[in-house]
Amino acid sequence: MHELGITQNIVAIVTEHAGGKKVRRIVLEIGKLSAIMPDAVQFCFDICTQDTVLAGAILEIREISGLAQCQQCGAEIVLDKPFGICKCGSVQLNLITGEELKIKEIEIEEICV
Ligand SMILES: [Zn+2]
User: How far is the centre of ligand 1, averaged over its atoms, from the C-alpha of 74 (Å)?
Assistant: First the structure.
């Protein structure tokens, strides 16, 4: 399960960013073609964040659809796999979106003095 390593990385980045403050919410973007299972990330997140500043934080995962452009005719094609075929018959596709793994937002708890 490579999601564990990915989640540990995310937790490390967010922890550093938070600088000791408590993290309330994280928004992750995961492309549908990235072969990362959102459910597995969610599961690993709950385990990885125990006893960290991320404990109890909400993990929001946004799935990004795969989109490619045909090199032959320029048409845009929605993909659910990292390959496909255009209506014109070409399999020469440039992936535009769908492979990303991005931390989109980090919400840190404001400490009122
Ligand atoms: Zn085409």
Answer: 6
